[in-house]
UniProtKB/TrEMBL annotation:
Keyword set, alphabetical order: Cell wall, Cell wall biogenesis/degradation, Glycosidase, Hydrolase, Secreted, Signal
Lineage: Eukaryota, Viridiplantae, Streptophyta, Embryophyta, Tracheophyta
SUPFAM superfamilies (alphabetical): Pectin lyase-like
Entry keyword Iron-sulfur: no
UniProt source species: Lactuca virosa
Protein name: Polygalacturonase
Length: 402
């Protein structure tokens, strides 16, 4: 009996050891998959191979991109679902795209899709977009192969963390997130020169419960662009500029757009941006709504249009004149906003005649004009009567609604 018990115990131990070995968290180094990291060799398939191995394991696993310079020609897809939480660690690594636009066959460079509990830490992702900007393709939906490739595209990536990531010189938008509920972006750095074209920093759409914090964005276009279907978004501790500020929209151009609701933006510094906070809706638009927006503790440094509701947004100049937007803007508050405007019109509320802006509150605003025309900053208002609390400079819509 003792011998039989010993055999059973030994077999159980072997099974236990095998299970632990199979389920133990693994680190898959892309260099074990053939990556060179020499800045010349295409290492894209090595990254995909490492991802596939880590994604297929039954315990939390990591893809390691060690320090070095890695070329990825021309685009890669990292696809789930994974069997367990997965991490991509690229601290000290630089990943570069090919500069030639003709090498791309998709609208993205690196895409991650259908993953829950992703942690993505570190790394610089360089889109090498200068050659594309010089061709000036696809400005505002104009001529050229549109849309151009996004640096990092996340689709249905949920319950995840993206941290200490740098995106530089994207050919188009730097980061695009869609259907990425309950995801946090922290310490994100976006860098593109002023002469880049349509290099939005972070574009989000059709998602809920996303936080963007402690980040720096210097680009040509919106630092953060909030599209249809965004709910419960918190943006805090952001430095933006140059660029085009933090924008909502454009909205109303297409049928059945989802509402934008519940946006909290706090402790943001805008420096040298074209706009500070802008809401863009199309005239002659389909119905839609934007509600429960809250802006607080903001510094504006030499911002051309610090606060702008633009319900006549028509960048291609092909809209029917005299028509009103059908997108309803309501329940918006601005509190404790300080700084300087580069134009005399610091507050501009161009609201719809058909659905006027409702329940708009401005409190403790002090925006002064510093420019060649001299004199104080002013406000311009159409179809709005905001509630004013405390001291508001310039006076918000002193004449009431049009």
């Amino acid at each position: 009996m003792n011998t039989e018990n010993s055999i059973r115990q030994a077999i159980c131990c072997l099974f236990l050891i095998a299970y632990i070995a199979r389920s133990h968290a693994a680190v898959v180094n892309i260099k074990t998959k053939g990556a060179k990291g020499d800045g010349i060799t295409d290492d894209g398939q090595a990254i995909v191979s490492a991802w596939n191995e880590a994604c297929g394991r039954e315990a939390p696993s990591s893809v390691l991109i060690p320090p070095g310079t890695y070329m990825v020609f021309p685009q890669i897809d990292l696809i789930g679902p994974c069997k367990a939480p997965i991490k991509i660690k690229a601290t000290g690594a630089v990943v570069k795209a090919p500069p030639e636009l003709e090498k791309f066959t998709t609208t993205y460079w690196i895409a991650i899709r259908n993953v829950s509990k992703l942690t993505m830490i570190g790394g610089t992702y360089d889109g090498q977009g200068e050659q594309t900007w010089k061709q000036n393709l696809c400005p505002d939906g104009g001529p050229g192969p549109c849309p151009l490739p996004v640096n990092l595209q996340f689709t249905n990536v949920t319950n995840s963390l993206l941290k200490h990531i740098t995106s530089t010189d994207s050919k188009f938008f730097h980061m695009r997130l869609s259907l990425c509920d309950n995801t946090r972006l922290d310490h994100i750095t976006i860098l593109s020169p002023v002469n880049s074209v349509n290099t939005d920093g972070i574009q989000i759409g059709r998602l809920s419960g996303v936080n963007i914090t402690n980040s720096v964005m210097r680009t040509n276009d919106d630092c953060i662009s909030i599209g249809q279907g965004c709910r419960n978004i918190r943006i805090k501790n952001i430095m933006c500029g140059p660029g085009d500020g933090i924008g909502i929209g454009s909205l109303g151009r297409r049928a059945n757009e989802e509402p934008v609701q519940g946006i909290w933006i706090k402790n943001v510094t805008m420096t040298g941006t074209e706009h500070g906070f802008r809401i863009k809706t199309w005239p002659t638009s389909f119905p839609g709504s934007v509600s429960d927006l809250h802006y607080e503790d903001i510094i504006m440094n030499n911002v051309s249009f610090p606060i702008f509701f633009d319900q006549q947004f028509c960048p291609l100049n092909n809209c029917q004149n005299g028509t009103a937007s059908n997108v309803n803007i309501s329940n918006v508050s601005f509190r404790n906003i300080r700084g300087t405007s580069a134009t005399k019109v610091a507050l501009k509320f161009d609201c719809s005649a058909d659905v006027p802006c409702k329940n708009i509150k401005v409190a403790d605003i002090n925006l002064t004009y510093e420019g060649p025309e001299g004199g104080p900053a002013t406000s311009e208002c159409s179809n709005i009567k905001p509630k004013v609390v405390g001291q508001v400079v310039p006076p918000a819509c002193p004449g009431g609604p049009d």
